[in-house]
Amino acid sequence: MSTKHIVIIGGGIIGCTSAYYITHHPTFTSSNAVVTILEASSVAGGASGKAGGLVAKWAYPKELVDVTFAEHERLAREHNGKERWGFRYTGGGQWTGRGEDVVRDAGEMTSKTSLEKKEGLVSGKNTARRNIGLPDDLDWVKEDLTDAYEPMAGDGETAQVHPYQFTTSMCALAQEKGATLVIGKATAINYSGSGASRSVSGVEYVNEAGSKEVIPASTVIVAAGPWTSTILPSVPISGSRAHSITVRPTRPVSAYALFTEITLPRSSFRTSLGSPEIYARPNNEVYACSPGDGEPLPSSTKEVKVDQQVCEALFKQISAISPELRGGEVTASQACYLPNVNSGPRGCPIVGEVDSAKGLIIAAGHTCWGICNAPGTGKLISELVMDGRVKSGNISRLAPRKFF
Ligand SMILES: Cc1cc2nc3c(=O)[nH]c(=O)nc-3n(C[C@H](O)[C@H](O)[C@H](O)COP(=O)(O)OP(=O)(O)OC[C@H]3O[C@@H](n4cnc5c(N)ncnc54)[C@H](O)[C@@H]3O)c2cc1C
Fold it and tell me: How far is the CA of 13 from the centre of ligand 1 (A)?
């Protein structure tokens, strides 16, 4: 049997998790498959290191979620994910209420694009909406500011990971099994043959010293998130920038992920409504992100611009509903790009082999659920590469031909 030369373009969560599953596939040996992760800047330097990290049975699309949630649980058990990447189950809900006057001054967001996580929820299906009243242990948002709280799902249906720790762990575990990480920017995919026998033959890239190199390949997995169309221009994926912050609260807070709708007082805010997502994390950290904006995609993760005013406005909004956050310390102010798919089945990433070139696989466009759906994607991709077909699910709806 000839050796497979597998090049994965992109060291985000999708690329690294695919490398993990290929190198942990039952038939993988370091002599029958050579796996290279080609990353332009740094592993988890984009959204995969700066996302919230929510993992949910109620996420979408179902084809991936059906595989991914159980895989997150298994990976955490097998590799001590609790310590290594902060895996834990979490409570969560939709919180609607009013913010109170806060003294810190800051700019406000100018345009808002919902990250659309809530589309996977069926309102009222799991638990009846409570009018006023919070779970007893959700004591870090003020009850007297709460108009409504609706739990998102039942116990054990929502979990979380620390995205940066998860992605870098997947990369390290793949490297332990023989995968190689190369820092360099892919500039072209090479092909041989034509018509029905056209297949990938290699990936051209520019290394850190600025020299051009080629890695031979029999399989190329393009997992470059929002940058995928810079490598394959016909792929309908774009990026939208979103800001986030992490905060060390004044005391450890209980494990809840909140989708908020905050009516803000005109006296201290320039906008009347804020909708930050707020996730308590282990190790006394709280993550919050704001809706996306229209800032164009830069050439690499290193060039992403952070608008400090947006981060300050985000902190001010979450401060308006929680004294524990208001008195806390902001430990990171950052921005990253969400990969959006502009055509094809709604809410679906593109996962599968391209019809026009044997060995060319796309795994990109995971929108607001890439952290959740990475293990499902990686497992199914590993079957496609190592077994020649996807065995653990049916992802025909995600095939590239459905999108372009
Ligand atoms: C604010 C925010 C919060 C989020 N919260 C959650 C959440 O709670 N749960 C969830 O499931 N999802 C969440 N997401 C979505 C999730 O972050 C993304 O879907 C996921 O990170 C996409 O991973 P990726 O590997 O496809 O892309 P990326 O993380 O963008 O990685 C792509 C990689 O490809 C590299 N690359 C690009 N071009 C090249 C090239 N030419 N050559 C080599 N390498 C290249 C880049 O440097 C980058 O490292 C959130 C997203 C945002 C923006």
Answer: 7
Domain boundaries, the chain: 4-82+162-237+342-402, 88-157+239-337
Q: Where is 71: in which H helix or E strand?
A: helix 62-78
Could you please state the CATH topology (level 3) that the domain comprising 88-157+239-337 is classified under: D-Amino Acid Oxidase; Chain A, domain 2 (3.30.9)
Residues 305-324: tens digit of each pLDDT? 999 999 999 999 999 999 99
- Centre of ligand 1 from the C-alpha of residue 225, in Å: 5
Neighbours of 101 (CB within 10 A): 11
Nearest CA to ligand 1 atom 52: 51
Name all residues whose Cβ lies below 6 A of ligand 1: 9-15, 38-41, 45-48, 51-54, 185-186, 223-227, 231, 242, 244, 289, 300-301, 336, 338-339, 364, 366-372
ipTM of model over 0.95: yes
CA of 244 to the centre of ligand 1 (A): 14
Nearest Cα to Cα of residue 16 among 237, 211, 135, 177: 177
Question: Relative to the CA of 38, which ligand 1 atom is closest?
Answer: 43
| Residue bearing the CA closest to ligand 1, atom 14 | 368
pLDDT tens digits along 325-340? 999 999 999 999 999 9
Q: What is the pLDDT of residues 90-100, one digit of tens each?
A: 999 999 999 99
Q: Which of 340, 332, 373, 349 is nearest to 50 (CA)?
A: 332
Rg of the chain (C-alpha set):
21
First-to-last C-alpha distance (Å) of the chain = 34
Please tell me the predicted confidence (pLDDT) of residue 102.
82
* 4-82+162-237+342-402: CATH number: 3.50.50.60
